[in-house]
């Protein structure tokens, strides 16, 4: 008998398992594939490994701008993929070691909830059944594959791929068509554009990067058009052929030739086939319904990570798992989704937290919105020849609180946590002005901007 059974060993699950074990709960973690989930095995980490290689290659190609000259820089995509595999293997092994040190029992099998009785929950994994007093569901998400004519056949033939398959593709396609201009689509478009593919991105919306602040999105768009990526915005994919993707744009049927296709139109929660119906867990649009304590409608059952459909970001999943465990341990805790940062690891990077220009208008907030060039930073100018990065501040007028920060420019991913802290703690402009930032850094632009807004 376990105090807690966790279904799913991704960021929400394995982090929660460690926290629960340290909190004194006898914990069982059930994972059907590899520890680390989508993020570590086929998402965040492998993608960043590829993108870092592409960034080094981009620097090599443009090194003369920085006074460094050499000829015939090249990239070995197959070697990049091999290195990605080594990085993932190392980190998966590290999680396994962490579970062992914490005293978490790990079962490598797919788990199914069989039922509930007075003593708790029964979960079947492989040929064994396990009992747990509490249940935390962290089964994650999977790439959505819409019912577009020809797409399923294209996926079956490996002409079309999701984020999982493309990360293991050893050849570099001459022409890559990306269906979807969100985070995954843009990051893969960035990588393959850097290493030589002719990339076309087809997006139904009139902009890229989804809910990203519109000014930031436009700068990112301009950068990638300059790099040679073709964007077809406001376009609807109508079918996938054997060597092309067909779409409708401005009322006309068009076709984009392709040697490979990436499907990246979003993700759906993994709630099918895990036995939710056996204990009556409520779902909405395929995701488990949870409150800000991560509780479901069934007493003793929590759900964290992509499976609840609230954020679908690994760092959000970490925190959700912690909130769930804290509440199990009698330590009241709540999830705050307003201060969770988001990052797109393109080159340049995009990072944001809090309200955007669009949400301010939609909510009718009385806010001051201003943008500042990153060229206020000596380090940015020194390291980004021709860079056009900005930081955008959104300030509540009445109380002068920081309610949104958005950046485009390298190092943005490493800076945004500080901005998230400002939003989370509802810091006022005058409070940020008193923080001593290191110099010279790109991040100090945020402090400088606080004196100009």
Q: Descriptors for this entry?
A:
FAD/NAD(P)-binding domain, 7-stranded mixed β-sheet, 5-stranded parallel β-sheet, 453 residues, Enolase-like, domain 1, alpha/beta, globular, single chain
Short description:
The protein has 453 residues and is of the alpha/beta class. The chain is 33% helix and 26% strand.
What report would you give on this structure?
The protein is an alpha/beta fold and 453 residues long. It folds into 3 domains: 2-142 and 268-328, FAD/NAD(P)-binding domain (3-Layer(bba) Sandwich), CATH 3.50.50.60; 151-265, FAD/NAD(P)-binding domain (3-Layer(bba) Sandwich), CATH 3.50.50; 342-450, Enolase-like, domain 1 (2-Layer Sandwich). It has 14 helices and 24 strands. The protein has helices at 11-22, 37-42, 44-61, 77-102, 151-156, 163-166, 183-194, 214-226, 314-328, 357-363, 378-383, 412-424, 429-433, 444-450, and strands at 2-7, 27-31, 105-108, 111-117, 120-125, 128-137, 141-143, 160-161, 175-179, 198-203, 230-233, 236-240, 244-249, 252-257, 260-263, 267-269, 283-284, 287-288, 301-303, 342-344, 350-354, 367-373, 390-396, 402-408. Strands 1, 2, 3, 4, 5, 6 and 19 form a 7-stranded mixed β-sheet that branches. Strands 8-15-9-10-11 form a 5-stranded parallel β-sheet. It has a 5-stranded antiparallel β-sheet with strand order 20-21-24-23-22, sandwiched between helices. The protein is globular, with a radius of gyration of 23 Å.
């Amino acid at each position: 008998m376990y105090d807690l059974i966790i279904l799913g060993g991704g960021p929400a699950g394995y982090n929660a398992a460690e926290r629960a074990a340290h909190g004194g709960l006898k914990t069982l973690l059930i994972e059907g594939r590899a520890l680390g989930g989508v993020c570590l095995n086929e998402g965040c980490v492998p993608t960043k490994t590829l993108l870092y290689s592409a960034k080094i290659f981009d620097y090599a190609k443009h090194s003369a701008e920085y006074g460094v000259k050499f000829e015939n820089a090249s990239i070995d995509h197959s070697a990049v993929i091999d290195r990605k595999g080594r990085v993932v293997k190392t980190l998966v092994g590290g999680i396994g070691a962490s579970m062992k040190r914490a005293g978490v029992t790990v079962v490598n099998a797919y788990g199914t909830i069989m039922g509930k009785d007075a003593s708790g929950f029964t979960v079947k994994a492989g040929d064994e059944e396990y009992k747990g007093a509490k249940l935390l569901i962290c089964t994650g998400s999977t790439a959505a594959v819409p019912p577009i004519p020809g797409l399923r056949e294209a996926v079956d033939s490996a002409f079309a791929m999701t984020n999982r398959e493309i990360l293991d593709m050893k050849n570099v396609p001459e022409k890559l068509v990306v269906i979807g201009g969100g985070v995954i689509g843009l990051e893969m478009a960035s990588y393959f554009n850097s290493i030589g593919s002719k990339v076309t991105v087809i997006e139904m919306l009139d902009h890229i990067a989804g809910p990203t602040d519109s000014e930031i999105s436009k700068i990112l768009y301009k950068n990638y058009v300059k790099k040679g990526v073709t964007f077809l915005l406001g376009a609807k994919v109508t079918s996938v052929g054997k060597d092309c993707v067909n779409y409708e744009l401005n009322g006309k049927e068009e076709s984009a030739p392709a040697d490979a296709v990436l499907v990246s139109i979003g993700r759906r929660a993994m709630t099918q086939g895990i036995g939710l119906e056996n204990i009556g867990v409520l779902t909405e649009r395929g995701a488990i319904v949870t409150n800000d304590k991560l509780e479901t409608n069934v007493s003793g059952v929590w759900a964290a990570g992509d499976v609840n459909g609230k954020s679908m970001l690994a760092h959000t999943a970490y925190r959700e798992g912690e909130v769930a465990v804290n509440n199990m341990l009698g330590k009241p805790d709540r999830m705050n989704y307003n201060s969770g940062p988001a990052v797109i690891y393109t080159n340049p990077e995009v990072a944001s937290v809090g309200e955007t220009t669009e949400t301010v208008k939609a909510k009718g907030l009385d806010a001051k919105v201003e943008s500042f060039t990153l060229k206020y930073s000596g380090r940015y100018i020194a390291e980004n020849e021709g860079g056009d990065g900005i930081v955008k501040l959104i300030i509540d007028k009445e109380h002068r609180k920081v309610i949104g920060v958005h950046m485009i420019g390298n190092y943005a991913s490493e800076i945004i946590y500080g901005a998230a802290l400002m939003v989370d703690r509802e810091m006022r402009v005058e409070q940020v002005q008193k923080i001593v930032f290191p110099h010279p850094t790109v991040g100090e632009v945020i402090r400088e901007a606080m004196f100009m807004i």
